[in-house]
Write a structure and sequence with these properties.
Main location: secreted
Pfam families: PRY, SPRY, Stonustoxin_helical, Thioredoxin_11
CATH architecture of the largest domain: Sandwich
Keywords: Cytolysis, Hemolysis, Secreted, Toxin
Number of strands: 17
Largest sheet: 6 strands, antiparallel
Radius of gyration: 38 Å
Protein name: B30.2/SPRY domain-containing protein
Order of helices and strands: HHHHHHHEHEHHEEEEEEEEEEEEEEEHH
Shape: elongated
CATH class of the largest domain: Mainly Beta
GO molecular function, one term: toxin activity
Length: 493
């Protein structure tokens, strides 16, 4: 083994000598150990005149240990996955890490200057107290540094928890990367969840002491949960879309506490605070524009080159367990909850005419011609019907409303699933005007599916859009894939 070079190593070696010599006595030789004052060796060591109190030594040790512990905590935080995604946090921690290293070096240099003076008797031990007083008065004292690290660890934990709810969504690290994502070829619409509270990398401990961090404010966290839920509703509805892009970023924004949603169209920001609109009473809606919520998630509409269902001669279709084989009706594939609006054009010039616009639960029967398999003739479906120039609202085999109307070419349908309402409007006007016709009130227990019943040759329905608002037209392909493809499953008479 190597020769001891420190006092501690020398004392340990002396303590081990009896055991070593007993085992190998033939190798024993006389030995002396010299403890030489540092002053004699010329290394600047002080000649001991006055010892330093145990309390002062313990305080020195505690201070160094506290600084080293914070540095280790900082190193651990730098290894967190979330830190690798957000440069603001990474740079902040790196600055904190450097600050801890600098404080340790400064403290050690001060001790190297003060301690020898005390040991030689040239300075009183109170000078050491002055060192601690200066450290305590500094904005970078141990208390503030520990508080700062507590804050950043809390911020990391909060962001990690929210990212856990947004698993699978791409995180962009800066504005340049965000621009590339929203400008990518084929992306017409983009929604970006933005953490707005992340600060820059500067360590301003004075400012930190006088503010309430967003990650400790209950109202801010509650708001962020609502924004996250709304954002994830959008994501789940359109995650398979090639035209919509969903992102997560951290961009400081003083106007919105905690989080907001940026909306982009064709690379251009539409709003920096995209949110769920306040829902109106369906009976008070008078215009199509009342449904324009700047999101396709709340609408089911189609382009004018639509899919059309027409009652006519028998068609040969392959057998399918979901096909209605006794009634001329169809359900769309997409289950709906939440709030949605769509429009339907239907035939109105044949007698007798029977065209129904409906929603139903998935378990409605498909096989046979029993009356309770028709849309509206059971507890699990609701329809709005045109029959012999009369408009009828029907549910559970009961008529809810009947009145005559000369002409109704287009019907607007508004489903407010959470509120338990299904409303119908006269949407025939070429303007934005809507006229409320009827509202079912119920409590939906599961998802509903839009459906249609078309009876008598040449009667038809098709989902349509007649709207000048270009953003709705841009989403035609999305709605087409959701709503229209299942019209091929109509059983024609």
């Amino acid at each position: 083994s190597s020769n001891p070079t420190t006092f501690e190593e020398a004392m340990k070696t002396i303590a081990e000598l009896p055991r070593i010599l007993k085992e190998k006595g033939e190798n024993a030789v006389p030995i002396k150990v010299w403890l030489t004052p540092l002053k004699t060796l010329g290394y600047g060591g002080a000649e001991l005149v006055k010892d330093i109190s145990v309390d002062s030594l313990r305080r020195i040790e505690d201070t160094l240990e506290a600084l080293k512990e914070m540095k280790e905590r900082c190193n651990d935080s730098l290894d967190e996955v979330v830190v690798k995604h957000f440069p603001q946090i990474k740079h902040y921690l790196q600055n904190f890490q450097k600050l801890c290293s600098d404080k340790i070096s400064d403290f050690q240099r001060t001790l190297k200057r003060v301690l020898p003076s005390i040991r030689e008797g040239r300075a009183d031990e109170s000078s050491l107290n002055n060192v601690f007083d200066d450290l305590d008065k500094s904005p970078y004292n141990l208390g503030n540094l520990s508080k700062c690290l507590d804050y950043i660890e809390r911020e990391i934990n909060i962001i990690t928890s929210f990212l856990g709810r947004m698993e699978g969504i791409k995180i962009v690290q800066n504005k340049s990367e965000l621009d590339r994502a929203v400008l990518a070829t084929g992306v017409n619409h983009a929604f970006c969840f933005v953490f707005t509270g992340l600060k820059n990398a500067d360590l301003n401990l004075d400012a930190m002491a006088n503010e309430d961090p967003w990650y400790y404010l209950d109202d801010t966290l509650d708001h962020m949960k609502k924004v996250t839920d709304f954002f994830m509703d959008l994501y789940r509805a359109y995650k398979n879309s090639t035209q919509l892009c969903f992102l997560v970023a951290a961009i400081q924004h003083q106007n919105y506490k905690g989080a907001t949603i940026y909306q982009y169209k064709e690379g251009r920001m539409i709003t920096d605070n995209f949110s769920k609109p306040k829902i109106r009473d369906p009976r008070t809606i008078k215009k199509r524009s009342h449904f324009l919520w700047n999101t396709a998630n709340n609408y089911l509409t189609l382009s004018e080159d639509n899919k059309k269902a027409t009652c006519g001669t028998w068609q040969t279709y392959p057998d399918h367990p979901q096909r209605f084989d006794g009634h001329t009706q169809v359900l769309c594939k997409q289950p709906l909850t939440g709030r949605h609006y769509w429009e339907v054009e239907w035939s109105a010039g044949y007698m007798p005419s029977d065209v129904r616009i409906a929603v139903a639960y998935k378990e409605i029967g498909r096989k046979g011609r029993m009356n309770d398999l028709e849309l509206g003739c059971n507890k699990i479906s609701w329809y709005f019907d045109m029959f012999y120039k009369r408009l009828v609202a029907y549910h559970d085999n009961k008529v809810r409303m009947v009145f005559s109307l000369t002409r109704l070419g287009r019907v607007g349908v508004y489903l407010d699933w959470p509120a338990g309402t299904l409303s119908f409007y006269d949407a025939s006007s070429n303007s934005d005007k809507l006229v409320h016709l009827y509202t079912f009130e119920t409590k939906f227990s599961e998802s509903v599916y839009p459906g249609f019943y078309i009876y008598y040759p040449s009667n038809y329905v098709f989902l349509s859009i007649n709207c000048k608002n270009t953003w709705r037209q841009d989403l035609t392909a999305e709605v087409y894939s959701i709503m229209c493809c299942t019209l091929l499953y109509v059983y024609y008479m």
